């Protein structure tokens, strides 16, 4: 490949390591590089946080963390490895997955050193996110029989100890730790190009407001409000984001910065680039991505400038959860033909994949009267704050259909009536006879749909985009050397000076996402990239000294 020389403004600054993006992975990369003695510059397109700051603040950890021990949860690295090997299905090499599992207790310790707090209050029911009473929970498919057969179930969802959605606290502690370690953060810095010399990435070119012309605090408030609104009501959030971007561009000029050890790309995924979604995952193009809006594939686009390989670009994690309330798992999930297609006990993202990719995005939860009453009784104790609007909608007259027979219910929903009646009869016969569930659901969550009236909740993406939304994140990205985090070309050759982490890269959760695995992978891959970029900087400095 021809050597690229990008001529532009003179380099304004030189650091050991440059990190592009200041979300969870970028913060961890910056902290790790600083801990290794490197000088670090972070270039952040907005004001920092990314999807991490808007997340639930859950870290997937196990192998016997102090949090698990405090809750009386028995777990080992071997059990965690066995579970994740089935979940990840070869997304990373066994050696990498083993290192992740073996290092998991230490990862929680490292996060504590950055100021994060965790708690051993164990959630005793299955949920997509616990209430403020619980901070350790089963955040994946651990209890599902096909997974429990290969690894003893253990609660591994470590929720940051704070009220409600705790991602903001999680991110703020990492941000503060990075600043305390001397990391330089430049907000509103939009990286446009990678600078290369003799095939090595040696810096970046970026647009940013001129010194002294930065927008005031009002702009930061506007940008952050736009990010939050993008998550909850994308049309308004996107409009505000464009307004904030316009202000930023008008005050910006082009700069360069150089890195002795390397550039770490940690800009998140590409869910907000419609063209990339249309090209790689067209079934999701009409579904809203999850995040504050900055996940536009920047890392992939920058990597393409130097021939960086990508993989698993079609891997998407869509999120339609049916619990809480936990009683909904006792119902059956059917497609438009009225046929069951999944184990209702599965983690929401695991269930959503076949819903979107194999069944045309049409699905319904079918419940009988007894299960419906049980579900209503669970609302007060199982609903976290953000579940309340969704559950209020579902249990309102507008959020479900009701009929005194399954055939009538099917017709009201546009489901094939004979298919639903037949599927329910097959399901009930197996329950009555004590036969194994056709989709592997455990007996605790099996219930005969014997007595009406019957209820249906539409779980299709377009059921109610405002009150019962479905969203997704992307899981593919730049291929990296799993020992160092260095980006590689198609043939596997590492690109000197370029690293990637978090959802910018192929990682542990690139096949299958469960709650907390993306943040945990961001810590794992961010630290790896930051440490090796810092090592490269030391080696470069030593080489220069020897030459001199």
Describe it for me?
The chain is built from 18 helices and 20 strands. Helix 1 packs parallel to helix 8 (167-180), helix 9 packs antiparallel against helix 10 and helix 16 packs across helix 17. A hairpin with a 2-residue loop joins strand 7 (190-197) and strand 8 (200-209). Strands 1, 2, 6, 7, 8, 9, 19 and 20 form an eight-stranded mixed sheet that branches. The protein is of the alpha/beta class and 548 residues long. It starts with 10 loop residues before the first strand and ends with a helix. Helix content is 38%, strand content 18%.
Q: Choose one word for the global shape.
A: globular
- Helix-strand makeup class: alpha/beta
User: Between the first and last Cα atoms, what is the distance in angstroms?
Assistant: 30 Å
- Largest β sheet strand count, sense and barrel closure: 8 strands, mixed
Helix content: 25-40%
Question: In terms of per-residue confidence, which ranges show pLDDT below 50 for 5 or more consecutive residues?
Answer: 1-8
Overall strand count: 20
Radius of gyration: 24 Å
* Mean of residue pLDDT values: 94
Q: Tally the helices.
A: 18
Multimerization status: single chain
- As a percent range, the share of strand residues is 15-25%
